[in-house]
Design a protein that fits this description.
Number of strands: 0
Helix content: over 70%
Number of domains: 1
Strand content: under 5%
Distance between the termini: 27 Å
Length: 127
């Protein structure tokens, strides 16, 4: 099995960051829609209360609105964690570039052929 190359590492990090950002945005959008639905449900509870519907139905509708609002709040927190994960992934990519980018650029500019990559790593560790 081949080792992970610098190019593969940067691509994987970029792909992961993009996926997390897209997913976080989708979660955020659904959480906001759920929050709007919770507000609508609360308004419905008020409207049916004005129609003198039985108190148990009004209470159930209000309880549903509270549950939906809580779900929305938790989904927004989850999406926020996704944003944090994306920032950490980007920072990892930046760190990989800072610590290995110079080596990669030097190897890419090298006049030595691809056969240099077939050298046993232990050879480099010898004194």
């Amino acid at each position: 099995m081949a080792d992970l190359t610098y190019t593969q590492l940067t691509k994987e990090i970029a792909d992961f960051t993009t996926t997390v950002i897209k997913s976080s945005g989708a979660i955020q959008a659904r959480a906001q829609a759920l929050d709007e639905d919770a507000r609508d449900t609360n308004r419905i509870a008020e409207q049916i209360g004005a129609m003198r519907v039985d108190k148990a139905t009004i209470a159930e509708t209000r309880e549903l609105a509270k549950i939906m609002a809580g779900l929305s709040e938790q989904a927004i927190a989850y999406a926020s964690a996704g944003d944090t994960t994306a920032r950490v992934a980007k920072a990892a990519g930046d760190q990989a570039n800072a610590s290995h980018g110079g080596f990669y650029e030097a190897a890419a500019r090298s006049i030595i052929g691809a056969d240099v990559y077939d050298i046993n790593r232990e050879w480099f560790r010898q004194e």
